[in-house]
Task: inverse folding
């Protein structure tokens, strides 16, 4: 009988892939200066200790620094599942939108490269654009954790014409006054109505040309 048992003298390495949830939890414990938890600790005990630590830290700062959560309700398990389904649908929707916008951006950059002035600089364009393009991902990075972490100031909307916003967006182009331009028309009220359709009893059958073939 031959066994496929690995040779203990060989240098065998086992690589474990850490999930994103485990990575976030580890970063949370490191940020809160927690020691490495024991392997047999339950989630209830672990998150209970995290909650106590968070209350201790937030109690030492002013309320304005932390802010109020935008969501303070209590949901049942069924409602959480419904929210998860909505989040999944929104994730698919915004992934498709991001993919479409990135494709339009790629096509726009490609059209610029057709210019005679850029034919000798295509490598430079690809290098500059490639670095920025690689940072733009198709997959949205928003999940339910962002909903729970959002603060109430997220619901405050500022108009784009507000002075606090315009000081960062105004430019010399906005001060250019466009003069009179020729009237190009195109108003629906100025268009002539189309002629009425010929009644069916007046239309020629078969659509063929008239006249019989003569001799000759």
Result:
């Amino acid at each position: 009988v031959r066994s496929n048992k690995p040779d203990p003298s060989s240098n065998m390495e086992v690589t474990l892939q850490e999930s994103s949830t485990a990575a976030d939890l580890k970063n949370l414990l490191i940020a809160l200066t927690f020691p490495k938890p024991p392997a047999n600790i339950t989630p209830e005990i672990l998150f209970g200790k995290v909650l106590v630590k968070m209350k201790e830290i937030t109690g030492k700062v002013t309320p304005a620094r932390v802010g109020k959560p935008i969501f303070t309700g209590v949901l049942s398990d069924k409602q959480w599942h419904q929210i998860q389904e909505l989040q999944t649908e929104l994730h698919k929707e915004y992934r498709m939108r991001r993919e479409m916008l990135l494709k339009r951006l790629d096509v726009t950059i490609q059209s610029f490269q057709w210019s005679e002035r850029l034919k000798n600089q295509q490598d430079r364009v690809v290098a500059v654009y490639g670095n920025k393009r690689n940072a733009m991902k198709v997959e949205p990075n928003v999940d339910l954790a962002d909903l729970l972490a959002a603060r109430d100031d997220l619901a405050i909307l500022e108009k784009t014409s507000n002075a606090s916003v315009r000081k960062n967006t105004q430019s010399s182009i906005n001060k250019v006054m466009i003069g009179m331009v020729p009237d190009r028309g195109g108003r629906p009220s100025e268009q002539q109505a189309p002629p009425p359709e010929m009644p069916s009893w007046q239309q020629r059958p078969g659509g063929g040309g008239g006249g019989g073939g003569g001799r000759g």
